[in-house]
Amino acid sequence: MFHTILIANRGEIACRVASTARRMGIRTVAVYSDADANAAHVHACDESVHIGAAEPRASYLLGDVILNAARATGAQAIHPGYGFLSENEAFALACGQAGVTFIGPPASAIAAMGSKSAAKSLMERAGVPLVPGYHGKDQDPTLLHQEADRIGYPVLIKASAGGGGKGMRVVNSSEEFIAALASCKREAISSFGDDMVLIERYLTKPRHIEIQVFADSQGNAVYLFERDCSVQRRHQKVIEEAPAPGMTAERRKQMGEAAVAAAKAVGYVGAGTVEFIAEPDGRFYFMEMNTRLQVEHPVTEMITGLDLVEWQLRIAAGQPLPLTQDELTMQGHAIEARIYAENPDNGFLPSIGTLSHLRLPEHVTFRNGTVRVDGGVGQGDTISPYYDPMIAKLIVWGENREQAIARMHTALAQTHVVGVRTNLAFLGRLMENTAFASADLDTGLIEKNREQLLPEHTEATLPALACVAATWISAQGQTGHNSNQGDHSIDPWDSTDGWRLSGSYRQTLQLLDGDIAHTLHMQRVDGQWQLVHQDRNYPLSWSAQADGASWHTQVNLDGRNYRGTVVREGEQAWLFGTGQTGGTRIFGLPDMLRHAADESADHGGNLTAPMPGKIISLSVKAGDTVKKGDALMVMEAMKMEHAITAPTSGIVEEVFFAVGDQVTDGAELIRIEEADT
Fold first, then answer.
1. Within 395-461, where are the H helices?
2. pLDDT recorded at residue 571
3. What is the DSSP string of 501-561?
């Protein structure tokens, strides 16, 4: 076994590998960029080496620099994690030439599966079923357009070297094809350095089911059952679970054996995932093979009781597979939810900022248990524009799927993040969704249930407002008792319950809930608290306990009890609640209202950057006439393209940036003079 390994990655997966290595007594070396000097993975390892600037191309994608770090620290092997260099054939070859073990498959297997078109041709020869499509090398746009017309719409354009949903577009008609192809190729060249694409028939109710495989250098291979990854947005997985709901033993065996055949066809060694797309009638087709550990590997660990990183290390060290196929078993059901810094209400755009408050449910980390959290950031860390905005993976286990869903729902409600927008409330609604709960799964689930999963902003309930108001006044030293009998002092001037010589006390609080301003009055009359809202008086009492930055508050409003947790962050109050105080809500506080008034002048058709990024295309210039909804420019951020559209019809007055320019969050991009209405 190795005595020292270098982990050529960052964040959650680097911490995950370090955890297993530490348990096995293996020394670890971290590498880090300028942005990660104080990151969690640096502290998780025994030694660390600086490798460059924040952008991945200047650090985590520099194979020669990483190899030099391995040599300098005495590392015998390199674990690439996922992403970055994990599926880079040249890096795997370079490791071998340098006498450093690459903890992954042979370079030849990466090459065979790295090109989706070449892999499909190989699978076709091996007898693995394929979706109808075009996987050829000729990338002439006219030919690709003709092939798409031949296959029949809708079709999926997919970057041949891609992954993670990047470089993929669904095209519904021939008229849309050329524009979608150009966008797909731009994203592919930016993310992978290769703009080759393939085209496939897009199945209208497909499930995404993948098989975890392992192979050793002695020629043995097994499958560790399946994962269902059908719940996706922008072709990126949101929820993963194992086993796949409704999977029969016969179908599991067919898919597992097909996956093992695929691995053996390329001389595979190590951990790999063979991804299939399945139709409602049970037919399945090979999509691709990811020649690395997957983000969602914990759900397989939870149902098998195994440590897949340990398997990787043992196999890379030349040991045989720890178990045979007949010895592998599974128990229960596991679900993983990816907690992202993103705003589901704004097209899932990434949210950049500092995690000023992070509270997680009771859990284990990087090992199997009822509730598990795998993460690489902590409170005080920054979600930057340079890397994937995942905060953590929340994984739960239950004796059955229903219990796992219930545990996930509870764990999500107990997860509180302040400082960035997150998908926590969206994930909670997914757990409550009828289609998901009944396992009516396909890759279009989110879009088909958009109204329930991404509802329009609704006005905050009175219990939610009361919870924030009670916390606000508690932070000033007031208590929510409805008599003075609980006070220890007989001196009324020591009272903290709003006692006044006149017999009454009143304080006004304004809360901004989206575009809705609420004026609340907290008043105490004759020893009784009341909440006054919209000229109605409600009897009120409460208790509020501070826990660091959090206030755990229970209110009794008009005879009914409600609970919530409130965190003050600058000019905002973040409310985390369930039931009538429900979900996550962000309220503006009085200072914020004053600023809003100061800035309430009409800004016309000004457009600002929704996040830091780079301008990669422009469709307009000063003097052009545009209609509301017209595409104006395309920004690239976090390796994804984001179209900027006109918020109003009018004439472009000025364009402030050119193609290639970097822009900061909130920078004015374009000014439009609104058309007369």
1. 401-413, 424-432, 434-437, 445-448, 450-453
2. 84
3. TTSEEEEEEEEEETTEEEEEEEEEETTEEEEEETTEEEEEEEEEEEETTEEEEEEEETTEE
pLDDT over 60 (residue 502): no
Give the three-state DSSP class for 335. strand
> Which of these, 505, 559, 512, 508, lies nearest to 528 by C-alpha position?
505
- Taking the alpha carbons of 427, 428, 430, 436 in that order, is the dihedral positive or negative? positive
Residue 496 φ/ψ, nearest 5 degrees: -120, 25
Domain with CATH 3.30.470.20 in the chain: 205-331, 332-454
Chain-centroid distance, C-alpha 319: 35
Query: Lowest-confidence range among 76-85, 212-221, 228-237, 254-263?
Result: 228-237
Enter the DSSP assignment of 246.
T
User: What SS3 class is residue 27?
Assistant: strand
Distance separating alpha carbons of residues 635 and 640, to the nearest angstrom: 8
Burial letters 372-388, b for 16+ CB under 10 A, else e: bbbbbbebebebbbbbb
φ/ψ (deg, to 5) at 374: -110, 115
Closest CA to 75 of 132, 168, 7, 175: 7
Record the tokens describing residue 103, joined without a space. 């903890």
Q: Positive or negative, the Cα torsion across 192, 195, 200, 205?
A: positive
Question: What DSSP letter does each residue of 185-227 carry, written as one string?
Answer: HHHHHHHHS---EEEEE--SS-EEEEEEEEE-TTS-EEEEEEE
User: What is residue 364's DSSP assignment?
Assistant: B
Among 438, 467, 483, 671, which Cα is nearest to 585's? 467
Q: Which CATH class is domain 606-674?
A: mainly beta
The CATH code that applies to domain 205-331 is 3.30.470.20
Tokens of 206: 């497909």
Q: What is the dihedral of CA 578, 355, 300, 399, to 10 degrees?
A: -20
Q: How many CB atoms lie within 10 A of CB 205?
A: 15
User: Under CATH, domain 132-201 is a member of which superfamily?
Assistant: ATP-grasp fold, A domain (3.30.1490.20)
Q: Are strands 333-340 and 236-242 parallel, antiparallel or unpaired?
A: antiparallel
User: Residues in the chain, how many?
Assistant: 677
- DSSP, res 457: P
- What is the DSSP-derived secondary structure letter of residue 347? T
Contact 349, 642 (CB under 8 A): yes
| Spatial CA neighbour of 521 closest among 536, 542, 503, 502 | 536
Architecture of domain 332-454: 2-Layer Sandwich (3.30)
Token couple for 363: 């859990």
Top-confidence range, 295-309, 455-469, 594-608: 295-309
Residue 175 DSSP label = G
What is the distance between the alpha carbons of residues 313 and 307, in angstroms, rounded to a whole number? 10
224-251: per-residue pLDDT in tens?
A: 999 999 999 878 899 999 999 999 999 9
Task: Kindly state the tokens that stand for 528.
Answer: 């009784």
Q: Which two three-digit tokens encode residue 507?
A: 């304080």
What does the alpha-carbon distance between residue 411 and residue 457 come to, in Å, rounded to a whole number? 24
Tokens at residue 123, please? 């699978």
Active site residues: 292
Give the count of beta carbons closer than 10 Å to the beta carbon of residue 663.
Answer: 20
Class of domain 462-481+504-594: alpha beta
CA angle 343, 346, 348 (to 5 degrees): 50
Weakest mean pLDDT among 101-115, 150-164, 225-239, 288-302: 150-164
